[in-house]
Amino acid sequence: MADVKPPEPREPADKPGDWALIKRVWPYIQQDRGWLWVVLLMTPLGVLAGVVQPVLLKAGIDDHIAVGDIAGLTGVALAFLGVVLAGWLTGSLGFYALQRMSLRGLARLRAAIFAHVTEQGARFFDRRTTGSLMTRTVNDTEAVYESLVRGAGQLLTDLLTIVGMLVAMFALEWRLTLVAFAFSPIIWVTVGWFRRRLRPLSLAIRQTLSRLNGFFAEQIYGMSLVQLYGAQEKSRAKFDDMSRAYMVAYHRSNWLDAGLYAVMDGMSALAVGAVVWFTAIQFTDPEPSITIGLLVAFVDYLGRIFVPIREFAGRIAALQQSSAALERIFGLMDANDKVTPGSIDPESVHGAVRFDGVSFAYAADRPEVLHDVSFAVRPGEVVALVGATGSGKTTIGKLLTRMYDGYSGSITVDDHELRDLRLETVRDRITVVHQDVYLFDGTVAENIHLWKRDLTPEALRRAVELSRAASFIDEQPAGLEWRLTERGANLSTGQRQLLAIARAMARDASIVILDEATASVDSETEKLIDEAVAELFKQRTVLVIAHRLSTIQKADRIVVLHQGGVVEHGSHEELMALGGRYRLLVETGFEL
Amino acid sequence: MGIIQRFWRHYCARHLRSYLLGFAFLAATTLLTVGIPVFVEWAVDAMEARAADEAIGWAIAILVAGLAIMVVRTLSRILFFNPGRVVEYQLKSDLFEHLTTMPRRYFDRMRPGEIISRGTNDASSVRALVGFGSLQIFNVVLTLIFTVGQMLISDALLTLLCILPLGVAAWILNLAIRRMFILIRRSQQQIATLSDRILETYNGVTVLNAFNAMPGATERFDRANEDLLASAMGLVTIQSWLLPIVTVVGSVCLVIVLYAGGTMVVDHGLSKGELAAFTIYIRNVAGALLGLGWMLNAVQRGWISLGRMYEVIDAETGRPPCDAPLPERAGAGYALRVRDLTFRHPEGDPSAPGGSQTAARPALEDVSFDIASGEVVGVFGLTGSGKSTLLDLVARVYDPPPGTIEVAGVPLESIDIRAWWGSLAYVPQDAFLFSQSLRDNIALAAPAGERDDERVAAAATDAALTDDLAALSHGLDTVVGERGITLSGGQRQRSALARAFYRRFEVLLLDDVLSAVDHATERRLIDAIYRRAAGATALVVSHRISVLRRAHRILVLDRGRLVASGTHEELLARGVEPYCRVHKLQQARDRDRAAATTPPLTEREPTVG
User: Fold this and answer.
1) Deepest in the core among A164, A203, A444, B7, taking most CB within 10 A?
2) For an interface test with B, which of A67, A104, A229, A562 has the most B Cβ atoms less than 10 Å from its Cβ?
3) How far is Cα B24 from Cα B79, in angstroms, rounded to an integer?
């Protein structure tokens, strides 16, 4: 089959509005809605505590220190202390609640993506790379979290702080507030200027860095080739160029970055200067309308308000990033290629299989790989499916295990239509011996039982022995607890085949599809495999996607497929006597 | 010489001027920053004394200081940050240069991921140390000295009352940050585990579904997902309760200033201006201490990273000196003599083919053979027989035990390794292409700027790439790899072969380069390989008898041992296994392939049997 995947489908391109996005996120945080109340209650309280503090400072100085009232000052100080502690408690609690809610929501969202993807039929995966699915499940959810931590979560606090303090300042002395922010428009323009220039630069920096890191990684993986072909100098020069480009890009942005930071820093000093200046002017009047306490309170406000203002733009950007990541995630969640589950759950399956006029194409725009295929298998019978590559024999196995939906005609198991049976039943009763066994990071035992809890150790042991996998597992000191590394890189081809048989034998299935391996193995292993296959044939209905004459001869019946249709069927002897397609295949060696 | 001294001498010393100048600007910035509360103090005292004009003067001083801060702070940041970038650049260059000299065994042992992390993440940490870290050190120290000094001048007791709680808060913050980094590292590992679980599940989705094993796989995922959540919650707890500690304590100090300072003002021990100034001092000190917490960690991690980078830079190749020149050519290519070659991949090395199995038995055992110069020798064996290891040893990708391989009578290990590599054209089994143009991939051996495009074209033609090139968007200039077009397995193999054909070589080593090409192309490629191999010594590894049968001689390896050697006909006549069995299977397959391309069954029937 072609190893090039068709272009990935673009997930729905229409951008949902912010409200729609919130509605979609809601189910994941709904369980924690108690914490949402905590956020909504505590955050404003925490902000309020900060807004009140300068007012207390003013009260202490003007109402008590100025008149020498120590007792009153003590009261204000105690109140102040209470406000500080209350601010810590409420602010931290609000922040904690928000983070907790988001983290748990994201963990649920990640689990939902995982569940959504793993429930999909094979068609879904035909059209997507694992890489893009990984990006949605891991990187995008991480991106949402990162941006929440970096800023989006603080947005509410910052916004309330800025608004609250401005209101308080206006209420205390509106003229002084105007004076304090007199420089703001100029600064705003300057900051905008800096940010506009910084944005493309930081994008360029990120790109040069990812190119540089990509190059570095690739060279490390290909270092042997670089050395064998004497390309060390060339690759050093290239690395040097890229590394220098990264440095130069950074030097350029350093100027802007440093400038922006310094302007923000100087801005609060300018505001303080302006406030002191305006107050000083009032003192030319014998009855100044601004008190020292008020001045101190304003200086204190200015020390508090500029950090949230400075961070505000960054937080908005972070929020946009997280909603972009969420949109991509929900785009994937909207894509669906599930196999329709049935509901019939018979108590036992005897193993009669019948294909009746079955036709099938992998996609609507692809040619049919099966047309009008009919054959029947009796319970306990072993039937070999024989045919050249592309004859459709593998597809029959894929339909029977319900990897693909959408066949026409009828496939029945014990007279139940296959698609009406419960999916779990089908998968429990029909099992597969894969040609190339896919191994997981874990022990041999885990790779056989695949985390099925209802499998007893005795049944596992039996499967290992019947499949002859015991031949190499028992040689290992750890036995069944032997860890397979790197997806079974420490197993030979033959050992992998024995494991595949053990995996199928560990299930209590009445129908087995044996996709026979073509890879050559040494003669001892081949003997073991033959024995294991013979065990498999006992008391089960077996469909063999056959490649070897020795296996085919053991079958009760042979179905010969050619270009998607059944052309002959019968026993080995009958078909040889017929002298048709089967005989041709036998005489040319089956090595397909 | 210690790492610190070496680091300073090699990388930092040349930036001394920049650092000194930056330090001067930083000192100016700090002085101006401390100046503002002092000016506020004087202005307030002037207001109290009803000297409004004087107060206006101090207000203007604040404005001027604000403007000046914008300039000097910019300069100080640039003067500190830019050297950091230069140091990072040079350190990375040196690291990379050293890596280009390291043997494969080093990469196997260190794992590519680990090396990549040292060249990227660790380099950033070192840069943070010399840029941001050093700026912050001076910034914090200067701010504390100037501010606390100014506070002490105003009132020692009040200063003490404020500094003590702030110091304790900073210490707690430092602990919290350290704990945070531990949790961050843990959660990074957990993300890696989670990714592995997800990747494994997605790749094995059909298997898991076929075996109804998705609930089990989901449990595995859930466990990893919950572990990650738990660390993240730990992180959040610290972030919400402990990170604000310095700010909270700063506000507590404001209360202290208000109460203790206010009492002093009433007793005439402190002026109202000083009280106002203290409220600003506290903010400055708290800010500096907050920076201190982060800085200490940046410094700590920077040092660790620096050590990790030096570990790579200082790593030895482990090769004894080899500087013998290449032997004189005798006719075509070199004669090779292999004697009692036994080779074992290091134990527990997961990258070794066969993994833990080969740890039990050597990859090659007691292999001896001779190859005359100009001879083309095929190598046959099943998976795990040691074919690839043999080529890796001849190519010195791994170093063979001394005395086991001789080249024209000279021990291989004594020959200058770059000269030896220069005389080889080795195509390893894994057809690795770099993400650059196909042209540059083929001309890998050409020095920069000396690519010979005619040679590239000729090599591509011989490697049967012509038809593929026509189908690619930019022909030879198509960029392959991640961002470019991904080639099929067969196209990759043939591109790697073209890369070898581009070279002038004395010894040609081909490791199973035709496993993914179709039948018709195979015949053309075999012709090209034997034509190109003329005038050189060649070792051609293959599973395919059709490739091997034209060799002068075929070596048959079985589980690391050389079991037979002879021509194709000799091997068949002697019934050497598994050679004969595989030959029979492949013959049958080839016949059937030929049959598949001929007219429909009914018309062909008479010719079959």
Assistant:
1) A444
2) A229
3) 10
Give one word for B331, left, alpha or beta, with left for phi > 0 and alpha for psi -120 to 50: left
Top-level class of domain B1-154 = mainly alpha
Coil, strand or helix at A588: helix
Task: Name residue, tokens 């190059």.
Answer: A215
Q: pLDDT tens digits, residue range B180-230?
A: 888 888 888 888 888 888 888 888 888 888 888 888 899 999 999 999 999
In chain B, where are the structural domains located?
Answer: 1-154, 156-269, 336-423+505-596
Q: In angstroms, what separates the C-alpha of A261 from chain B's closest C-alpha?
A: 8
Phi, psi (deg, nearest 5) at residue A464: -65, -40
Which of B449, B463, B324 lies closest to A231, judged by CA? B449
| Residue contact B115–A222, C-beta within 8 A | no
| C-beta atoms of A107 and B228 within 8 A | yes
How far is Cα B72 from Cα B75, in angstroms, rounded to an integer? 5
User: What is the Cα–Cα distance from B335 to B370, expressed in whole angstroms?
Assistant: 8
pLDDT top residue among B405 and A477: B405
Sign of the torsion formed by the C-alpha atoms of B270, B276, B277 and B280: positive
Q: Is B505 helix (H, G, I), strand (E, B) or coil?
A: coil
Fold of A10-172+313-338: ABC transporter transmembrane region fold (1.20.1560)
Single-letter code of the amino acid located at B60? I
Residue B608 CB partners (closer than 8 Å, separation 6+):
A583, A584, A587
CB-closest option in B62, B115, B355 to A272: B62
Answer CATH for A353-588 from 3.40.50.280, 3.90.1170.20, 3.30.1490.100, 3.40.50.300: 3.40.50.300
- Residue A496 CA to residue A500 CA, distance in Å, equals 6
Count of C-beta atoms within a 10 Å radius of residue A356: 13
Task: Give how far B331 is from chain A: nearest CA, Å.
Answer: 23
Determine whether the interchain pair B601/A221 forms a contact, defined as Cβ–Cβ distance below 8 Å: no
Q: Count the residues in chain A.
A: 592
Using CB atoms within 10 A of its CB, is residue B314 exposed (0-12), middle (13-18) or buried (19+)?
Answer: exposed
Partners of residue B82 in chain A, C-beta under 8 Å: 251, 254
Tell me the residues of chain B between 514 and 553 that have a Cβ less than 8 Å away from chain A: none
Rounded-to-integer distance, Cα B82 and Cα B104, Å: 35
pLDDT per residue as tens digits for the range B30-84: 999 989 999 999 999 999 898 889 999 999 999 999 999 999 999 998 998 888 8
**Which of B69, B244, B279 is closest, CB to CB, to A265?**
B69
Does residue B487 sit at the A interface (CB-CB below 8 Å)?
A: no
B39 touches chain A (CB under 8 A): yes
Residue with tokens 């504390």: B144
Cβ-Cβ contacts under 8 Å, B263 against chain A: 70, 73
Three-state DSSP class for residue B101: coil
Is B336-423+505-596 a domain of CATH 1.25.40.10? no
Q: How many Cβ atoms sit within 10 Å of the Cβ of residue A324?
A: 15
CA A577, chain centre distance (Å): 57
Give me B590's structure tokens: 């080839």
Name the token pair of A534: 């013979």
B244 phi, psi to nearest 5 deg: -80, 5
Taking the Cβ of residue B36 and every Cβ of chain A, the question of whether any pair is shorter than 8 Å is answered with yes
CB B167 within 8 A of CB B250: no
Mapping DSSP to helix (H, G, I), strand (E, B) and coil, where does residue A442 land?
Answer: strand
Assign A5 a pLDDT band (cuts: 50, 70, 90): very low
Q: Across the interface, which of B202, B210, B233 has its CB nearest the CB of A117? A: B202
ipTM for the complex?
Answer: 0.84
Q: Does pLDDT of B609 surpass 80?
A: no
